[in-house]
Amino acid sequence: xxxxxxxxxxxxxxxxxxxxxxxxxxxxxxxxxxxxxxxxxxxxxxxxxxxxxxxxxxxxxxxxxxxxxxxxxxxxxxxxxxxxxxxxxxxxxxxxxxxxxxxxxxxxxxxxxxxxxxxxxxxxxxxxxxxxxxxxxxxxxxxxxxxxxxxxxxxxxxxxxxxxxxxxxxxxxxxxx
Length: 177
Prior knowledge:
The protein has helices at residues 17-29, 43-46, 50-57, 72-80, 97-108, 136-139, 166-174; strands spanning 4-9, 83-89, 117-119, 130-133, 145-149, 161-163. By secondary structure, the protein is α/β, with parallel strands linked by helices. The protein folds into two domains: 4-16 and 67-174, 3-Layer(aba) Sandwich (Rossmann fold); 17-57, no CATH class. Strands 3-2-1-4-5-6 form a six-stranded parallel beta sheet. Helix 1 crosses helix 3 (50-57) and helix 4 (72-80) packs parallel to helix 7 (166-174).
């Protein structure tokens, strides 16, 4: 019997990009943004200095040093027992991130085979049974069942099934078996 498939986004789902951006942004711009303070804001509202944000996202080692989301490693291992897992990241927007993301996955998720890592531009081509992502721009085009992973910028979005953390994601997906 063929396993169902799950595509999992990296930034904001497996990797805590919010904390990393806030830390770099505060240091570079002299602000004191917090995760709590940007809840419900769009990325443009939270990080008003767009040029600075793009500089940060294009810095060497930015993506390589992202913290892992709580329970992500254990949860993906658990899901791998019953699902085929693909890691899918719209990485080509920041070309420097390509090698860094592969190295990050190798360090934190070495049990994910290289052929199950998809670094792309648009996720509209991804055809899996489920997509876990924090951006509606990806979930809205999901060919399978979209699952929105909570992030500051999607708190006010309600048109997709939401999970707030990895334990909830595992519970929701295990219910589908």
